[in-house]
Amino acid sequence: MKAVCWHGTHDVRVDTVPDPSILNPSDAIIKITSTAICGSDLHLYNGYIPTMKSGDILGHEFMGEVVEVGPNVKKLKIGDRVVVPFTISCGGCFFCKRDLWSLCDNTNPNSWMVEKMYGHSPSGIYGYSHLLGGYAGGQAEYARVPFADVGPMKVPDGLSDEQVLFLTDIFPTGYMAAENCDIEPGDTVAVWGCGPVGQFSIRSALMLGAERVIAIDCVPERLQLAQEGGAEIINFEEVDAGEALKEMTGGRGPDRCIEAVGLEAHGVDAMGLVDKVKQAVRLETGRPHALRQAIVACRKGGTVSIPGVYGGFVDSMPMGAVVNKALTLKSGQTHVHRYLHPLMERIQNGEIDPSFIITHRLNLEDAPHAYKIFKDKKDNCIKVVLKP
User: What family is this protein classified in (predicted)?
Assistant: First the structure.
């Protein structure tokens, strides 16, 4: 089959690789009909996530048709159309039973690697380094899906791939980011980053009752899409975002802040330059400019929600602001399984059509070009869907 494979920093290729097969009796094989490039895939593309190996198959946002099932699979049959959560969960461990699916104890065979860094391991993830299991990803023609009775959700008739594809990751991720804010009536929510997760955070915050959402970015097409979704906007290259937020909130600051940027944040001040240098020489593994700004900007007693990806260590965090302003910080890989059914209902009820985010529809063979324009923010690229 054809698959998008990582071969080094800024080097992805479409290779011919062996078809996946049933390895465990609870596996299924999916023929992929739609797959997407996620913003977090760019961290792999840019070389910031360790333990990648040449030839690793990328991709964790995918859906398709069941073409084979293992003997222990009871809930799926050949021909079922399914979306597949990016986190792999067993369904039976301490964390899965408590609806904390991305913390599954049993799906990362390389948990010993992560334990050295974090103390404990999260779940395995498709196509996202050997640190998180070494699973083949879904930017391919076929994929093996472990624990097939636990993860995949059948797609109701009448819904297109583009309406439901993002239930695999970015829609639940943006929604959980907003839910973690504990939004109250009258709240102002500020969102750093208007990429795909930021866009879903904006719309989710409004669905959950925010009175105002303020979006912060510097890319015109992203800011425009945020504005179309109901947000007020700040271009941080034109004004100081922190000062603008003070002015827009009467000096108090946003009630809730969502940092949807992660480890490759761009700063326009001296600290941003220092972060870039430190990351380049591996003195820190992330550039937390947006996170620092969110913590400082948030009102006293507010909440900072962090869906942005961080893999290791960051420097110069304003912990004094966290403590002395009594802030609540919430984060985590998304518990996708928790949100599949309620968010599917919102789509069916017409509350949201997630396909609004798509700017490019390309063939799988176009993946190297797609990664480049997504990384470089060329051709107004916000979200790419690939068709195997």
Answer: Belongs to the zinc-containing alcohol dehydrogenase family.
